[in-house]
Amino acid sequence: MKDLVNLEFSIYIDQPMTDYTPLLRIARGLSGLHLYNQSALKSTDIATITKAMMSNRLTNYKGEVVSFPSEIDFSKNNLGNSEFATFVHTVQANLDLTTRAILRLGFAQNRVTDFSPYLTYKQALLSESENQQFSAANLTLAAPFQREHGSIRLPDTSAVKLVGNTLTVPFAAFPENKIQMQQDPNQEVPTVIGYRMDHGEPDYFDDPQNVQTHVAANRHQESQEGVAQDQDGFEESYGLVIDPEYPSVELGSNDLTLVNQLDAQQPVTKYATRLSTGELAELKQLAQGAPEYFTGELSDPDTLRITNVPAGSTSVKVRVLYFAVPVSNSSLSSVFSYAQTYQIPIPKETTGNAGASGETTAPQPHPVAPQPDAVTSRPAKVTQKLVWSTRKIGLYRRPTFTTKNRLRWYQKQPRIKRPMFKVIGYARSKHGVLRYRVREVTPGAAGRKGYITARKAFVDRAYYQTTAKRIKVLKGLNGYRTTDHLGKRAHYKKGQILRVKQLVKCKLTARYQLTNGQYVSAAKRLVLKVK
């Protein structure tokens, strides 16, 4: 009997019930409850079931409580804001803070548009005793893919300012940021915050078809593959920043003023993430060391700038994505937390400088000192390009590199045999490290797809990007009349030295125009710059 008491049981119910009394009889012994597709479920039922799960727990022969509920999940029940508030308030009234137990709340695929009860409770816990702070870190919410798309007013608008048509909003005004700043850095589930303008258009996190493991009716249907598919959707839905590890190699192509900035009229469905303090410092160092590759200056790291606000507008909407990084195979720890849309009232225009220059949207930049916060960035387009590996690298199924996810190794090869890849997307690992999503284009390859590192020490452009005076042929190549390799004029053998007139870009590739007018490939595996 002692062993049975120590066992943990989770149950999944996806068939409609009309009487929840039998469930209440066993609730005190459950470690997890997942209750789905309940058309009769009401606020009173949620309160009663939650209280039964959290109070009067089973004890051992010494009278000690031996287990605590770790998951309470009311997903897929067509529940709204009032039912969600009841759920959170019941948890608040019955959570034993002295146990420091981990508790995950599930409320996915319902109709919630206001997550403030959960945020308010988290903030209250973080401002209190050590036990409460610990409980706040262990209290997580999984509530993505809501079936309604609404908004609530931003709670703190006291520091929101308008200059010209640029609106400035302190990041601290968003409750999610307050929680992230207060949260214990060693929390069990780290979080990532993303931002985008919300004009009512749906995104990845509005489509229930993208839900994978956390609302599965049968735990045995869950798989690491399913979790990874969820991660894919999250990574692909994230906007990009100017990555400090690999900025664009084109002169003046990295606009630093775009960091911390969203365009009020840009209808994007991707989220912009915040640079970490280390990434911000590294980006500043790069800009100082190679200013020719950057334009503008970094602005206030504590402020979100919303440019291009339409004249006469009374408010704008910003959607904030709160994401719990997966840390285990739990059905609720491998999910997105929620997406909350905030309506931000536009105040009367503020006199003085609040991030704009003159009367337009152009920001007035000023130096940025390292801060304990990070900064956000506006989403950027995926720049397709061809790269090759210069050292041993792996190809992985997912952006987070693990032995299980590795598809194959590419060993370091001689120059003419190095593998080539087409970059078709970007993603970040669960720790925020940039990855390239690629398709292999090595001659004779099978077109494998996956993720590789984006570190310049391991991968580089497969074609020269700058001109040369002379090149050496590494492998026989042809000279053509046009950049599209039409009209063969000559064949050049290995070891020949050719004189170059200029470099010509050709879609994702590049050509060298020789002094005789012919065009040859500028692929690094075929030619080598020489003096």
Keywords:
elongated, 5-stranded parallel sheet, 9 helices, SH3 type barrels, 4 domains, disordered N terminus, 531 residues, 17% helix, DUF5776 domain-containing protein, single chain, DUF5776, alpha+beta, 6-stranded mixed sheet
Write a structural description:
- The chain has 531 residues and is α+β, with helices and mostly antiparallel strands.
- It has four domains: 1-143, no CATH class; 150-200 and 229-380, no CATH class; 385-461, Roll (SH3 type barrels), CATH 2.30.30; 470-530, SH3 type barrels (Roll).
- It contains nine helices and 31 strands.
- The protein has helices at residues 2-6, 21-27, 43-54, 81-94, 116-126, 130-138, 175-182, 224-236, 277-289; strands at residues 9-13, 30-35, 71-73, 103-106, 139-142, 152-153, 161-163, 166-170, 191-197, 254-255, 261-263, 272-275, 294-295, 303-307, 315-324, 336-345, 375-376, 385-389, 393-396, 406-410, 420-428, 434-440, 449-453, 459-461, 470-473, 477-480, 488-492, 497-506, 509-514, 519-521, 527-530.
- The strands form eight sheets. The protein has a six-stranded mixed beta sheet. It has a five-stranded parallel beta sheet with strand order 1-2-3-4-5. A five-stranded antiparallel beta sheet has the order 23-22-21-18-24.
- Helix 2 packs parallel to helix 3 (43-54), helix 3 (43-54) packs parallel to helix 4 and helix 5 (116-126) packs parallel to helix 7 (175-182).
- The longest helix is centred in the first third of the chain and has 14 residues, at 81-94.
- The chain is elongated.
- The model is unreliable at 1-7, 184-190, 212-246, 326-335 and 352-381 (pLDDT under 50).
